[in-house]
Amino acid sequence: MQLRHLKTFVAVASELNITRAAERIHLAQSSVSEQIQALEADLNAALFDRTGRKLKLTDAGQQLLDHAPDFLVRADEVRAAVAAAANTTAGALTIGGLETLCASYLPPLLAHFGAEHPAVRLQLKSAGSGELRGGLKSGALDVSFAFGEPPETPELKHEVVAEEELVVALPAGHRLARQVTAGPDDLRNEPFLVTEQGCVYRQMFETAFAKNGARPRIAVELGSIAAIQKLVAEGAGCALIPRVAAEASNGRVVTLPWTGDNSSVPVSMIWHDRRGKRPAVRLFLEAARRQFKPGDARPRRAAPFR
User: Is 272 helix (H, G, I), strand (E, B) or coil?
Assistant: First the structure.
């Protein structure tokens, strides 16, 4: 049983869609199908039920999925032990992050790390917070970065590496645009643009107004922070977002520091405890800590978002 076939199986089993799995692991659909067929032949078992319109795991496929993540983690541990004995850090690292962080915080970090460790091949993937946690648990990701502090789990470790100021984004012609700051009372009954339930940006909104009766009116729910910025620029409403997410505005959006109870949000670095023992992962974690030195992070004032 080849490890690359097992990794491909985990991707297909997670997506239950060949096309999405192929995009996720950057392979042609034909290659994904061939690897799944090779794995089934090797195990002498059908792993997917292909009789319906959608893929389904067979009982054998579910058994393999239950054991595959631990198997892949153990394989990484063996590889790490061999690399440590050989005093080498060559290999590959897959780094995940929220779209906003992939466009702002992470490129300088990856550039510096790549220059210092050219033998390590880096891959950066943008995803939502739930997919990032799943990727860490399955072994698809080595390290991820997200806003907020994740719930404590035995297998996932995290630390806060920076603080990002929260701002209220307003259309340039808004009645509050000339103010210096904005707080809950300023936004009473204002139309607000938010992301969908379960998204970290939605959690920021819910937490910011949790203790205050002056709650704005949710006008539109959108699927991404980029869509929210565009609608703010068009005058459709206001939004509460990290300052770094507003830095790409084209002058049609005004940002005011948020003066509510939670005026900043932590940026967390998260990794799987076992994978963190790999030499390349350890070096990357150390590089991230140097990149986001405590003196560079904004003063930490926000409560954890869960």
Answer: strand
Pairing state between β 264-272 and 253-257: unpaired
Cα 239 to Cα 222: distance, rounded to the nearest angstrom? 11
Contact 9, 63 (CB under 8 A): no
How far is residue 95 from each of residues 158, 194, 199, measured CA to CA in Å? 14, 27, 20
Sequence-ordered strand ranges (E) for the chain: 48-49, 56-57, 91-97, 120-126, 143-147, 156-171, 191-195, 217-222, 239-242, 253-257, 264-272
Question: Do residues 119 and 149 make contact, with C-beta atoms less than 8 angstroms apart?
Answer: no
Of 263, 240, 264, whose CA–CA distance to 253 is shortest?
240
Strand pairing partners for 265? Answer: 164
DSSP 138: H
Per-residue tens of pLDDT for the chain, all 306 residues: 788 898 898 888 888 988 888 888 888 889 889 999 999 999 999 999 888 788 899 999 899 988 888 888 777 777 766 666 655 556 789 999 998 899 888 999 999 999 988 888 899 999 888 888 888 888 889 999 999 888 778 888 999 999 889 999 999 889 998 999 998 888 888 899 998 887 888 888 888 887 656 678 889 898 888 888 889 988 899 999 888 887 655 678 899 999 987 788 899 999 988 777 788 888 999 999 988 865 444 433 333 333
What is the C-alpha separation between 209 and 239, in angstroms, rounded? 12
- Listed in sequence order, the residues at least 6 apart from 43 whose beta carbon sits closer than 8 Å to its beta carbon are 1, 60, 64
In the chain the first and final C-alpha atoms are separated, in Å, by 39
d(CA 193, CA 202) in angstroms, rounded, equals 10
Give me the count of residues in the chain.
306
Residue 235 neighbours by CB distance under 10 Å: 13
Cα–Cα distance between 241 and 199 in angstroms, integer? 12
* Phi/psi-derived region of residue 218, left when phi > 0, alpha when psi is between -120 and 50, beta in every other case: beta
